[in-house]
């Protein structure tokens, strides 16, 4: 029963068969068309007998007609015009959107909307593998310079998690593990054999087996010892089976070399062996092969040394060329020098010269350090190239250009490298300055994130590492703008602002003969408002030295760009495409405020540790650092944890990113960089090279918040300090088969696209002609996500056949942004109540602010005693206050709308004499957590530290030498007398616990009341006042009550009334001291005693709340004796000077002697007399045992008896006052005379008479 089929669209089944008599058979017709059209066909039915004896006979003709119609189902609204926009959705929450499908055709259809298959590899990962040491390797990228075509489909990683970490020994022994020893100074990775290599500062190459990415293992048996050489870098050409190791000479200004060794082969592991070495220039700081390993570039830094003068070799670059590195003799060397440039040409190109020739002249001849520096030799051999120090290398994608980074010069040398022939220098170009007129920067050392702009302030970017990438056929250079400076002897390029420019904008006096521009002065004054300690350069970018006799300060320029930059290489030059601005400081503040501009490095190594033991030169620094903090993380004093060094680098270089690498992962072009001193890693998606996106900010060493490196290394919780080690591994070169970065132990997982986020409700019934069906799409993002792509496709299935119909409905574009809730706590890390007196309470507050776009619930609870979380993963929202140790917190839960904040009050109840710290957990709904292995249900909660010091007030009662700082302090009174040589000493006798005033002048009625006759004699001052000092060693103010109490015991003589203390109550500030006055005023001759008590009323500690000691003193009077002729009478007597002729003189020697215990003042009263003279001052002061002689003279001027009174008054002791009556008699001698044998007129003349004194005799003789 054959048939004829005239069209391919119409079919018939079966085509032939047999019919028994009276049998019926059904013939089925089918119609299938790929286009809308009308079809007609005629089918002919023929038959014959079963045996085939007859020929075919026509039995009938059947005409078949059919028409096909196109499926006409559409999505409304039109997906080409209106996307399915979810807007912004909270991560882990759900959002729904609805679209409609309309059947505009003539037949029922079954629509099947679905998410589009993701064209990207869904299991790609970016893996970071750790090699832990103090300083690590140069950034590397395996597989050539990364290239990106933005027209291709790509996605970006969305998470970051630890994979593995390995601690590397610093020498060949597996047990030689220690922080600070530079065990992985540089690293490299052999992707073919899956071995990593690390060179140490101790001159050892270690091998790490990375065949199992989750469990890397050091293979100490494969180590290679370079016998202490200064290793600078390591590189590997895996397919060539060679290792390159750079090494500086023992004298770093001499030529170094590059060692060539064999790699370890996994099939038969054996330690590397030496092939030979190549001579390089001074200090080959970096080596880098090109993509096919036929050329090896070397950066000869040419770093200077200063020893009895400056030796500074020129920097250069070398390119070694070979097709067979096993034959060292055939390696060709090309050297590219920089000596074609002059200082002025380099400065014109924006190149920074730390010490140009003219600057060298100024500092050597005319500056304040001219007498201590010697640049004579360097000046005589100077060239501009000696200022240039190549430090880092990067190849372009086609290996035709070598970029040489000159860090200290803020510049890059661009070298043309032909495929054959000699390379040549194209240009040396500066990288420009960063201007903080509009970019905020943190300069304040205030332990906070205080970013501000400063008009006129600039900084040199001074990148350490560079990385070349290609995007859409263009070459770009990435820079990690760390900052650096140079110093030679007493000359330093880096100086504090205050040492260069005063706060009034004038040059500091040490800047001899320097002037300053108005713009620079204004910038300096602006910065002075925040800090005077900002480190600025005095190199060519800031100071014009063209006149070495009078340099001009033209700019205020700081060190380091505090971020990363991207430059486009075009026309043989570099132009800035993008800079991260202040993102590093703001993001580090937002994510890890405890690490903001902090510092951790080898100087934080433990005292008595390996570095301290092996390097005597650094011991002083380590010992100094070990005294910085009371708790280094183990409860003992030591170097500070990173969390206690906030802002230490704000005045210097801030975050200082040091390493940068780039590579492709998940189709995206990524850049990874890390800060030098804070271990903060930043991951950027730079696929859009003009506007990179920050994906992640992570902390490589979370334990450093509370532990210093030595403590954290000891318990193996230390992460990557100074994370300079970075190698980008694309998927083809990674040990895990997933793209990665070998640095510190984190993993980036790819974002899988919209497929995993969207759930579409499928229609359960067919869609009839003209019918509409609403389709619900639910989005439940599990992470941060942003997309605007064709995410939903519509398939139409034929109702009868069940097959998919080729129905070209345009896919629906889905727009979605998924975010976490974000919040800010102020203060960010915790509350420190400081010292609070025991029994008192103090209340402080912190603020929780909703910085996101969704409202969220929040809750607080004790970190050590968390509540049970519900099935929804949320804690109960209790209204009860939370008690965390002595801290009470309220409110403890609530809801915050966007931009709303709540103030949380914390009350500290000081209850003992100890330090308290408690952590509370801050839980916020819908935030991104930082899970840790031991966090449990607290994963995702933020810890908030509450600290306070409960103090019992008290005073020093043990170290009594501080009390008697102005007095003698001896074991016994006798010791003090022996030392002083006198009795009247003020001394505290430690053995007796007695303070002795010694003998003190008695104050009693009548004593000292007589008035002096001489204006120079003063009445005595009674009583002695001594200053004693009370010290408060506590952290809270201390109230002290002072009193004088009688002594106890029947044998106690004297009265306590003679002692006074001032003040009787005082308050001593924390860690301060106050003087008190104790006065002793005896009122009669006796020995006195009392007890001085100092009581701290609020003090509960017996060792510090009470101080007492005995006071003793003797009432005494001065005693002076008169020595000389014996006097008669108890109160003086008469002193008879005898009978003396007029105008003659008689003298008597007398003396005053102090026979008492006190210094004495004697008043000598004597009225003027013509007959007596007392040769003695009117007032005489005598120390104990001292005497003073004087004379009494009698010289009568009249005949007869004369008298005068001499009074001797001992001030303070009227009982010894004496009056001496001086007596004497004056007389006149008679003169008799006669003349005999005087002849006058023949006779004799005689005379008799009396001659008065001084009278003359005159006689007239006659005849």
TrEMBL record:
Principal location: other
Biological processes per GO annotation: axonemal central apparatus assembly; cilium movement
Region Disordered, residue ranges: 1-22, 630-655
Entries under PANTHER family matching the protein: DLEC1 DELETED IN LUNG AND ESOPHAGEAL CANCER 1 (PTHR23053), HYDROCEPHALUS-INDUCING PROTEIN HOMOLOG (PTHR23053:SF0)
UniProt KW keywords: Cell projection, Cilium, Cytoplasm
Compositional bias of kind Basic and acidic residues: 12-22, 646-655
Domain Choice-of-anchor I: 180-586
GO CC, alphabetical: axoneme
Protein name: Uncharacterized protein
Pfam families found in the cross-reference section: choice_anch_I, HYDIN_VesB_CFA65-like_Ig
Subcellular location: Cell projection, Cilium; Cytoplasm
Domain spans labelled HYDIN/VesB/CFA65-like Ig-like: 831-931, 1134-1224
């Amino acid at each position: 029963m054959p048939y004829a089929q005239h069209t391919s669209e119409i079919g018939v089944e079966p085509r032939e068969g047999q019919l028994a008599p009276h049998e019926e058979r059904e013939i089925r017709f089918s119609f299938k068309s790929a286009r809308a059209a009308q079809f007609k066909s005629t089918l002919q039915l023929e038959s014959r007998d079963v045996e085939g004896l007859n020929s075919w006979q026509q039995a009938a003709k059947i005409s078949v007609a059919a028409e096909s119609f196109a499926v006409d189902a559409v999505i409304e609204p039109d997906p080409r015009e209106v996307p399915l926009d979810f807007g912004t959705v909270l991560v882990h929450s759900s959002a729904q959107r609805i679209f409609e499908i309309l059947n505009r055709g003539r037949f029922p259809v079954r629509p099947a909307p679905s998410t589009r298959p993701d064209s990207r590899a869904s299991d790609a990962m970016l893996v970071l593998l750790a090699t832990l040491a103090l300083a690590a390797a140069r950034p590397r990228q395996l597989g050539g310079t990364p290239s990106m075509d933005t027209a291709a489909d790509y996605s970006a990683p969305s998470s970051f998690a630890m994979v593995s970490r390995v601690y590397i020994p610093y020498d060949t022994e597996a047990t030689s593990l220690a922080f600070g020893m530079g065990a992985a100074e540089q690293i490299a990775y052999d992707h073919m054999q899956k071995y990593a290599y690390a060179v140490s500062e101790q001159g050892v190459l270690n091998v790490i087996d990375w065949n199992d990415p989750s469990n890397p293992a050091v293979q100490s048996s494969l180590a290679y010892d370079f016998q202490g050489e200064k290793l600078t870098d390591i590189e590997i050409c895996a397919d060539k089976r060679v290792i390159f190791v750079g090494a500086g000479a023992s004298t770093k200004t001499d030529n170094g070399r590059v060692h060539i060794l064999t790699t370890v082969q996994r099939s038969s592991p054996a330690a590397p062996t030496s092939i030979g070495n190549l001579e390089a220039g001074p200090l080959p700081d970096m080596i880098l092969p090109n993509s096919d390993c036929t050329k090896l570039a070397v950066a000869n830094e040419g770093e200077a040394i200063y020893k009895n003068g400056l030796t500074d070799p020129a920097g250069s670059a070398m390119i070694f060329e070979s097709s067979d590195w096993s034959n060292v003799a055939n390696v060709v060397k090309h050297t590219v020098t920089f000596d074609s440039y002059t200082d002025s040409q380099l400065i014109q190109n924006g190149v920074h010269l730390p010490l140009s020739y003219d600057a060298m002249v100024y500092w050597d001849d005319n500056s304040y350090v001219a007498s201590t520096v010697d640049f004579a030799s360097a000046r005589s051999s100077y060239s501009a190239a000696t200022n240039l120090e190549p430090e880092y290398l990067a190849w372009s994608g086609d290996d035709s250009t070598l970029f040489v980074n000159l860090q200290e010069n803020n510049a890059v040398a661009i070298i043309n490298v032909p495929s054959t022939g000699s390379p040549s220098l194209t240009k040396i170009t500066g990288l420009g300055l960063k201007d903080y007129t509009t970019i905020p920067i943190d300069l304040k050392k205030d332990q906070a994130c205080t970013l501000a702009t400063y008009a006129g302030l600039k900084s040199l970017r001074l990148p350490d590492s560079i990385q070349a990438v290609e995007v859409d056929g263009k070459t770009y250079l990435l820079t990690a703008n760390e900052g650096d400076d140079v110093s030679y002897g007493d000359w330093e390029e880096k100086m504090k602002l205050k040492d260069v420019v005063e706060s009034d904008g004038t040059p500091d006096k040490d800047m001899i003969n320097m002037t300053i521009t108005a713009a620079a002065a204004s910038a300096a004054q602006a910065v002075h408002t925040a800090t005077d300690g900002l480190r600025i350069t005095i190199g060519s970018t800031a100071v014009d030295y063209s006149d070495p006799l009078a340099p001009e300060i033209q700019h205020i320029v700081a060190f380091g760009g505090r971020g990363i930059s991207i430059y486009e290489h075009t026309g043989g030059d570099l132009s800035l495409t993008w800079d991260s601005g202040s993102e590093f400081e703001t993001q580090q503040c937002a994510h890890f405020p405890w690490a903001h501009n902090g510092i951790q490095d080898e100087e934080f190594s433990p005292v008595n540790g390996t570095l301290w033991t092996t390097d005597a030169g650094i011991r002083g620094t380590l010992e100094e650092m070990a005294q910085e903090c009371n708790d280094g993380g183990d409860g003992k004093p030591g170097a500070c944890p990173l969390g206690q060094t906030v802002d230490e680098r704000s005045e210097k270089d801030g975050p200082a990113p040091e390493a940068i690498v780039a590579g492709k992962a998940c189709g995206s072009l990524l850049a990874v960089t890390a800060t030098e001193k804070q271990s903060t890693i930043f991951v950027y998606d730079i696929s859009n090279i003009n506007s990179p996106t920050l994906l992640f900010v992570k902390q490589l060493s979370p334990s450093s918040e509370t532990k210093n490196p030595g403590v954290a290394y000891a318990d193996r919780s230390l992460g990557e300090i100074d994370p300079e080690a970075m190698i980008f591994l694309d998927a083809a070169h990674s040990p895990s088969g997933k793209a990665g970065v070998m640095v510190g132990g984190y993993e980036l997982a790819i974002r899988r696209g919209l497929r995993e986020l969207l759930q579409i409700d499928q229609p359960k019934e067919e869609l009839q002609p003209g019918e509409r069906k609403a389709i619900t799409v639910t989005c439940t993002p599990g992470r941060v996500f942003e997309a605007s792509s064709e995410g939903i496709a519509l398939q139409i299935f034929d109702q009868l056949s069940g097959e998919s119909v080729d129905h070209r409905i345009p896919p629906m574009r889905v727009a979605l942004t998924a975010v976490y809730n974000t919040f800010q706590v102020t203060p960010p890390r915790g509350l420190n109540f400081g010292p609070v007196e025991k029994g008192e309470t103090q209340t402080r507050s912190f603020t929780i602010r909703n910085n996101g776009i969704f409202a969220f619930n929040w809750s607080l609870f004790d970190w050590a005693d968390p509540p049970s979380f519900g099935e929804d993963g949320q804690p109960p929202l209790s209204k009860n206050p939370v008690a965390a140790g002595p801290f009470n917190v309220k409110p403890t839960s609530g809801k915050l709308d966007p931009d709303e904040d709540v103030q949380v009050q914390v009350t500290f109840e000081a209850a003992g004499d100890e330090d308290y710290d408690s952590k509370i957990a801050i839980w916020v709904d819908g935030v991104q957590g930082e899970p840790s292995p031991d966090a449990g249900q607290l994963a995702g909660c933020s810890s908030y530290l509450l600290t306070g010091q409960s103090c019992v007030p008290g005073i020093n009662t043990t170290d009594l030498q501080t009390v008697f700082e102005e007095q003698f302090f001896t074991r016994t009174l006798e010791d003090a007398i022996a030392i002083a040589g006198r009795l009247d000493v003020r001394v505290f006798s430690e053995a007796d616990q007695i303070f002795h005033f010694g003998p003190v002048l008695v104050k009693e009625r009548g004593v000292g009341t007589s008035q002096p006759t001489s204006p120079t004699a003063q009445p005595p001052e009674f009583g002695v006042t001594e200053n004693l000092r009370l010290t408060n060693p506590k952290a809270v103010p201390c109230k002290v009550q002072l009193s004088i109490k009688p002594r106890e015991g029947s044998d106690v003589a004297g009265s306590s009334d003679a002692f006074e203390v001032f003040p009787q109550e005082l308050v001593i500030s924390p860690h301060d001291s106050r003087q008190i006055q104790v006065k002793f005023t005896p009122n009669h001759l006796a020995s006195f005693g009392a007890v001085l008590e100092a009581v701290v009323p609020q003090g509960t500690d017996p060792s510090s709340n009470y101080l007492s000691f005995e006071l003793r003193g003797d009432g005494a009077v001065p005693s002076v004796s008169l020595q000389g002729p014996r006097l008669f009478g108890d109160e003086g007597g008469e002193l008879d000077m005898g009978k003396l002729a007029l105008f003659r003189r008689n003298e008597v020697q007398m003396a005053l002697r102090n026979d008492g215990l006190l210094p004495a003042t004697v008043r000598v009263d004597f009225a003027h007399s013509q007959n007596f003279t007392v040769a003695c001052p009117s007032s005489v002061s005598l120390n104990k045992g001292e005497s003073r002689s004087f004379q009494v003279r009698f010289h009568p001027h009249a005949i007869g008896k004369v008298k005068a009174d001499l009074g001797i008054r001992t001030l303070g002791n009227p009982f010894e006052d004496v009056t001496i009556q001086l007596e004497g008699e004056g007389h006149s001698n008679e003169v008799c005379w006669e003349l005999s044998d005087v002849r006058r007129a023949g006779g004799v003349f005689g005379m008799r008479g009396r001659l008065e004194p001084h009278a003359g005799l005159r006689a007239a003789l006659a005849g």
